[in-house]
Design a protein that fits this description.
The chain has 118 residues and is α/β, with parallel strands linked by helices. The protein has 5 helices and 5 strands. The protein has a single domain, classed as Winged helix-like DNA-binding domain superfamily/Winged helix DNA-binding domain (Arc Repressor Mutant, subunit A), CATH 1.10.10. Strand 1, helix 1 and strand 2 form a beta-alpha-beta unit. Helix 3 crosses helix 5 and helix 4 crosses helix 5. The model has no long low-confidence stretch (mean pLDDT 89). InterPro entries: WH-like_DNA-bd_sf, WH_DNA-bd_sf.
Length: 118
């Protein structure tokens, strides 16, 4: 199963996680794809209910472009295009050269620690 981990991290914790991932990559170890946000508000601003619905739809309906996706969801093209653009920038959605949208992950794991690691 292909998954991405999304974390809510303080700036200091994000730097530590980046350093750890960098060291793993330099050592040739596999690293899990990750995204980090500074707050729950930032996370929910980037991944809204509509965007999550869009991701699920793309994952279950292969071969759609933005226009077809908007029609399939019964949403305005401009709004869907904006959501697709944001999700592509986050790496949660991919757009092939022919315009077809692909959801590269089967699962999104959200991690929100309540204490900084020692």
């Amino acid at each position: 199963m292909n998954r991405i981990e999304i974390s809510i991290l303080s700036p200091q914790a994000a730097l530590q996680a980046f350093g750890s991932t960098w060291q793993q990559a330099e050592a040739g170890e596999d690293t899990r794809p990750r995204l980090a946000f500074g707050s729950l508000r930032e996370l929910f601003s980037a991944i809204t209910e509509k965007r999550l619905e869009l991701l699920r739809h793309v994952a279950s309906q292969e071969g759609l472009n933005v226009r077809q996706l908007a029609q399939s969801l019964g949403r305005d093209y401009k709004n869907v295009h904006g959501d697709v653009t944001e999700l592509v920038e986050l790496g949660l959605l991919e757009r092939r050269n022919d315009g077809v949208l692909v959801a590269p992950y089967d699962e999104i794991l959200i991690h929100a620690g309540i204490r900084d690691a020692a």
